Amino acid sequence: MKKILFPTDFSEAATNAFVHALEFAKIVNAELVLLHTFEIPVYDSQFFPENYASIYSSIELAKFEMFKDEIPKLRTIAAERKLDNIVIKHRLMDGDLVFNLKKAVEEDHIDFVIMGTSGVSDWTKFFLGSNTSSVISEVKVPVLCIPADAKFKKIKIIGFTTRYREKDKAELRKVLEIARKTNAKVKSLYVRTSNTDVPDTTIKEWDKEFANENVEFLVLPSDEVKETILDFVLYKDVDVLTVITHKKSFFESIFESSFSKKITKEVSIPVLVMHET
Predict the structure, then answer these.
(1) In sequence order, what DSSP letters do the residues of 209-257 get, joined into one string?
(2) What are phi and psi of 207, to 5 degrees?
(3) Cα first-last separation, the chain
(4) What is the pLDDT of residue 128?
(5) Where does the UspA domain lie (predicted)?
(6) How far is residue 15's CA from residue 233's CA, in Å, rounded to a whole number?
């Protein structure tokens, strides 16, 4: 059985993402590991010589009580969606979120991370938010990022961006496996710029290799890569967009602030970030 790590701060955005995590767990037959982290403030022991330890103990106890009170609320959401058969485990850790997330991924042998983002439909905030971008760049398992106002709906079309590199095939196969379980179609996009280095023979090879899969390959000529990707999302009714990251600057270039302001139609869909293998 696969394992999904779901970091939560019990905010509205996180609770919305929890629904996606439940539904995704059902699709890939996974159990959920809920992770809540908290930072203990640093105190100088010379000013609190007698109650130094009790200060830390009281903070930890308060966090534990809050954590304990929030869990039944999430279990109620699972029951309401008839997904209470999904195994849900918990981790409460003190310290830095990204450090603990990486630690949990390693120790619990996590296959996916699913997390809510604080930036609503603004993709700039979405990708450049400190926690989201840190997780994307440092956690080496697929990360499904859920915008705060992206309500769950059945996944019918999964978008997949590629540059037709040989290593992209492995990630495409992973996406096709997910698509099969939800009866979704995969639409693969390559934006062919005027200085492209991908020969037609490579594109034909991919068409032949994946001929028996439920995938449609789109090659769109344009030097406006960012606009083309967003048009693809909007006009192909993409429910989840898959991207393969190799540099954090990739996101910064696509979703820079000046560009995001040009978006006239709201884009608010989950983004599945795969890592180069």
Answers:
(1) HTTTSSEEEEEEE-S-HHHHHHHHHHHTT-SEEEEEES-HHHHHHHS-H
(2) -55, -40
(3) 22
(4) 44
(5) 1-147
(6) 25
- 3 state DSSP class of 228: helix
The pLDDT value recorded for residue 61 is 55
Give pLDDT tens digits for 6-39: 988 888 888 889 999 999 999 999 999 998 886 6
* CA dihedral sign, ordered 144, 150, 151, 154: negative
- From CA 205, how far away is CA 173, in angstroms rounded? 15
Q: Which residues contact 182 (CB under 8 A, 6 or more apart)?
A: 27, 154, 155
Candidates 75, 94, 89; CA nearest to 5 is 89
Give SS3 for 91: strand
Are the CB atoms for 119 and 126 separated by under 8 Å?
A: yes
Residue 106 three-state SS: helix
pLDDT in tens, 58-103: 555 555 566 667 788 888 889 999 998 999 988 888 778 888 888 9
Do 147 and 260 contact (CB within 8 A), yes or no?
no
Contact 16, 116 (CB under 8 A): yes
Q: Which residues in the chain come in under a pLDDT of 70? A: 38-68, 118-137, 246-267, 277
Q: What Å distances lie between residue 39 and 51, 63, 99, CA to CA? A: 19, 10, 12
Best CA proximity match to 78, nearest among 111, 32, 135, 118:
32
| Cβ atoms of 233 and 241 closer than 8 Å | yes
